[in-house]
Amino acid sequence: MKKFLTFVCMLVCILGLTACGKDSGPTEYEQYKMQNAQQLAVQEVDLFNQLANADASDFFEGYTAEEIAYICGANWGFESDGYAVIKAVDSFISARKSMGNITGIGNAQVKIDDKQIIVDVEVIGEKKNATAEVIMSNDMFYKLESAALNPISSMGELMGGAALNTVIGMGTVFAVLILISCIISCFRIIPALQKKAQQRKTAKTEVSSVTETEDAAEQISEVSESEDDTQLAAVIAAAVAAYEGSAGADGFVVRSIRRRR
Fold first, then answer.
1. pLDDT tens string 238-247
2. Which pTM was predicted?
């Protein structure tokens, strides 16, 4: 048993030592590609700066993406996606508003990420510096896939932006809370309004019932008066017939009856 445990421990130690290796870093071919990508990225950043100074965004409106890619290959000597060039120039024009004119280009850092080569170029401006990110295809053509100029914000600007976001967030929260409290306060008014509406409905019902009762009473009174007048007319006709000595009251017609006090 002890020999078996010793064998297992030795095997685990050997496997552990094999896992401890030193990173060999990029190969010689990868270093060659990184150097070429770095030089090409610096040239492209300088070109995009010149196009931004000339405000070439209007110039690109008359060409398709394929035509722009052809112009880049024929005139400027690099493969590109036409849309990537348009976006890059727009990004440089937009960044110049906050960083001013570009006065120089600094160091560049290159890394290979699977099928892409990413180059970060330091760009020096009058007001603030920026970082130009240039992404190329990881092949022999170094095709430009994307490029953008990102101004570097100072600590004060970052703190100001964070404070503004905090104020907006807290203001939104308080506004929603105030709205909810107003809605909750309306719950006390709603029952009172419902009660008043019910009272008005009840009063209308009572008035309509009273009106109907009065109308029925008037109709009954009119019927009773008409029946009384009919009986009274028959009695008067019989009395007149008896006074005249007639056998019946068929020949007498009572046209109207006037009451006297």
1. 766 666 666 5
2. 0.56
Residues 40 and 97 in one domain: yes
111's enclosing H/E stretch is strand 102-113
Domain count of the chain? 3
If residue 121 lies in a helix (H) or strand (E), which one and from where to where? strand 116-125
Strand positions, DSSP E, the chain: 102-113, 116-125, 130-137, 144-151
Whether 1 has a pLDDT exceeding 70, the answer reads no
Encode pLDDT of 199-228 as tens digits: 888 877 776 666 666 665 566 555 555 556
CA atoms of 107 and 109, how far apart (whole Å): 7
Q: Tell me, yes or no, whether 201 lies in a domain.
A: no
Judge if 131 and 161 occupy the same domain.
Answer: no
Better pLDDT: 179 or 25: 179
The Cα-based distances of 114 to 118, 138, 183, 201 in angstroms read: 10, 7, 56, 79
pLDDT at 42 over 90: yes
Do 108 and 120 lie in one domain? The reply is yes
Judgement on whether residues 98 and 143 belong to the same structural domain of the protein:
yes
**Backbone φ and ψ of 247, nearest 5°:** -75, -30
| AA identity, residue 123 | V
| Domain with 183 in it | 154-193
17 in any annotated domain: no
